[in-house]
């Protein structure tokens, strides 16, 4: 309501200053200080005519409009904006053991390989779908004969100390791997390979024979030659660079914590020099535990956020196939009865694989019927049915002329004058394998076979059982790797130590396929060779193939972008760690091309 003394008079002035009027006047004066704007001038004149109550109502109404507009604009903005990863956050992870050799040439334990994978990079690397992609290398070429590989190193490739990665660093690293005095686990991968620096950013490898899986070797982390060149072979394992690495990986060491001289914690920060871009995570904190129980307790009480092969309450679990094959491998040299295919087949058919996967491995495995793990594009051999396993196994023996003598508790073959009634399973003294061995024993005993189990510590099993081939049935896991090179496991030339053909298998057709799969540069031909190998080996039953385990990784729900490739060694879980993130930003869609 407005009050006037006469028609054209000014409003009656208030006896004291009005705060609402003052605010409006200040705003209008500020807007018109430098330039007279007619609408604001009129608004100023209008507000001066209002009473204090009307002015207060106008102020409240204006503020409501402003707030409502802001909320509406924010909602509209969220409708059109997209969420993208942003830098920030730290992942606290638990690990088993303690690293000693954080060095791509000497790493032997999973703890060694984990820190090495985070701090070093190779010419090639593993992508999140399991394929090999250039990392320090910008590109590579392969000669028509498959023996010469030429890599071009990225111009912006830098070690964590800021120095450039050059061809000389690659040559130095490979030549150290080839040095027998260093005794590097990488020695066999580089034996016979000639490496040359063509120029500062071009390196060439010449192989003695074509080897299609060679790109897997090129994932070897590169050492900075300027720091390692003057370190002798004898001192290589003991210098500070072993625990405080300078590499070209996604993270750098910020600090290490020790207890009684043993490293218990690594504090890592994102590297600004990483060639594929600074990781989204600001850092990683890796804490080491002496046993699985302590690791599980740390995950349960929140001391750590993530760990592999360790379930966590209420946390998110990510899984991936392991590039390994577990089975019972037969050795007919130790027990001649196993030369008969029907015996091997019956032993394989009798095993209830679904029981093992569901009840012992909690479903974190895939049943197998052949030597190649799933996920490779190879047509898998179906595993024997888990229905009526004992009846089916008995039928295999009966169809081959065997009959069961209940009194003697043996299977007998009158024509061959042979009997079969007992077998010994040898395996590692590991909880999981002990349970699997017991399940296999139960199935074989139902078939009428007496079974004994012998357990060995891992080192003892390798030295006294596997290397001298002192077993008739060995429950074991073959780590195939990403390159799917089956030659060491099934070629007849690899039957004796140090070969890995633990089934003592020999088949000329398979030998030819294995050699061709190694040499061919055609992916199509290689897949055809692998399919032939899968089919032929499965049909011969050199082993009772059981399962491929699944790798399990417990992570906090706040961590995004985690995609695991097929896992050969646990450190493969870090293949795409530069893309993991906790923080996000909202941006307009057209700006995502720059992320």
Q: Can you give a write-up of this model?
A:
- The model is unreliable at 1-21 (pLDDT under 50).
- The two termini are 58 Å apart.
- The chain is 31% helix and 22% strand.
- Strands 12, 13, 14, 15, 19, 20, 21 and 22 form an eight-stranded mixed β-sheet that branches. A four-stranded mixed β-sheet has the order 2-11-10-9.
- It has helices spanning 19-32, 38-48, 52-80, 110-119, 167-177, 187-190, 214-217, 225-228, 292-300, 341-349, 353-360, 389-399, 431-446, 458-466, 487-490, 508-519, 523-540, and strands at residues 82-86, 90-96, 124-126, 132-134, 137-142, 148-153, 194-199, 202-206, 251-259, 262-270, 283-289, 307-308, 316-321, 324-330, 365-367, 403-405, 410-413, 418-420, 422-428, 450-456, 473-479, 543-555, 583-587.
- It contains 17 helices and 23 strands.
- The protein has 595 residues and is α+β, with helices and mostly antiparallel strands.
- It has three domains: 19-80, no CATH class; 90-315 and 556-594, 3-Layer(aba) Sandwich (D-Maltodextrin-Binding Protein, domain 2), CATH 3.40.190; 321-550, Dipeptide-binding Protein, Domain 3 (Dipeptide-binding Protein, domain 3, Roll).
- Helix 10 runs antiparallel to helix 12 (389-399) and helix 16 (508-519) packs antiparallel against helix 17.
């Amino acid at each position: 309501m407005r009050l006037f003394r006469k028609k054209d008079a000014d409003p009656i002035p208030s006896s004291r200053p009005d705060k609402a009027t003052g605010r409006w006047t200040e705003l209008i004066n500020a807007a018109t200080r430098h330039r007279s704007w007619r609408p604001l001038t009129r608004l100023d004149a209008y507000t001066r005519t209002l009473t204090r109550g009307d002015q207060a109502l106008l102020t409240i109404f204006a503020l409501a409009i402003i707030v409502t507009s802001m909320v509406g604009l924010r909602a509209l903005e969220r409708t059109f904006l997209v969420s993208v990863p942003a830098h920030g956050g730290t992942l606290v992870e638990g690990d088993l053991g303690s690293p000693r050799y954080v060095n791509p040439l000497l790493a032997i334990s999973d703890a060694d390989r984990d820190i090495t994978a985070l701090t070093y990079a190779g010419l090639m690397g593993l992508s999140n779908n399991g394929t090999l992609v250039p990392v320090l290398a910008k590109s590579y070429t392969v000669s028509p004969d498959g023996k010469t590989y030429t890599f071009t190193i990225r111009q912006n490739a830098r070690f964590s100390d800021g120095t450039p990665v050059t061809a000389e660093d690659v040559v130095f690293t490979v030549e150290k791997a080839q040095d027998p005095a260093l005794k590097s686990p990488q020695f066999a991968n580089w034996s016979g390979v000639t490496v040359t620096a063509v120029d500062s950013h071009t390196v060439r490898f010449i192989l003695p024979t074509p080897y299609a899986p060679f790109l897997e070797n090129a994932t070897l982390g590169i050492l900075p030659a300027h720091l390692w060149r003057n370190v002798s072979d004898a001192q290589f394992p003991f210098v500070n660079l072993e625990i405080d690495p300078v590499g070209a990986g996604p993270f750098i060491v910020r600090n290490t914590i020790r207890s009684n001289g043993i490293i218990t914690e690594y504090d890592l920060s994102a590297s600004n020099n990483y060639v594929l871009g600074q990781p989204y995570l600001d850092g990683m904190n890796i804490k080491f535990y002496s046993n699985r129980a302590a690791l599980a307790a740390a995950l349960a009480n929140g001391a750590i956020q993530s760990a592999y092969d360790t379930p966590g309450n209420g946390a998110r679990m990510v899984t991936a196939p392991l590039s390994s094959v577990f089975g019972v491998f037969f050795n007919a040299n130790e027990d001649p009865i196993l030369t008969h295919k029907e015996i091997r087949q019956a032993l394989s058919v009798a095993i209830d694989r679904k029981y093992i996967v569901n009840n012992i491995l909690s479903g974190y495995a895939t049943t197998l019927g052949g030597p190649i793990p799933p996920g490779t594009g190879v047509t898998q051999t179906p595993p024997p049915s888990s229905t009526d396993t004992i009846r089916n196994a008995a039928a295999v023996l009966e169809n081959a002329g065997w009959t069961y003598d209940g009194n003697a508790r043996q299977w007998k073959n009158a024509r061959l004058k042979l009997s079969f009634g007992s077998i010994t399973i040898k395996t590692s003294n590991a909880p999981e394998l002990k349970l699997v061995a017991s399940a296999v024993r139960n199935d074989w005993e139902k078939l009428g076979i007496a079974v004994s189990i012998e357990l060995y510590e891992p080192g003892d099993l390798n030295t006294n059982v596997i290397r001298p081939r002192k077993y008739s049935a060995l429950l074991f896991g073959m780590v195939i790797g990403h390159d799917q090179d089956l030659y060491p496991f099934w070629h007849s030339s690899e039957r004796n130590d140090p070969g890995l053909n633990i089934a003592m298998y020999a088949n000329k057709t398979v030998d030819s396929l294995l050699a061709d799969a190694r040499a061919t540069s055609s992916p199509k031909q290689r897949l055809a060779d692998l399919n032939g190998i899968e089919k032929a080996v499965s049909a011969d039953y050199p082993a009772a193939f059981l399962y491929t385990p699944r790798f399990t990784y417990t992570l906090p729900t706040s961590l995004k972008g985690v995609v695991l490739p097929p896992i050969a060694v646990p450190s493969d879980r870090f293949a795409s760690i530069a893309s993991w993130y906790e923080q996000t930003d909202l941006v307009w869609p057209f700006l995502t091309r720059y992320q």
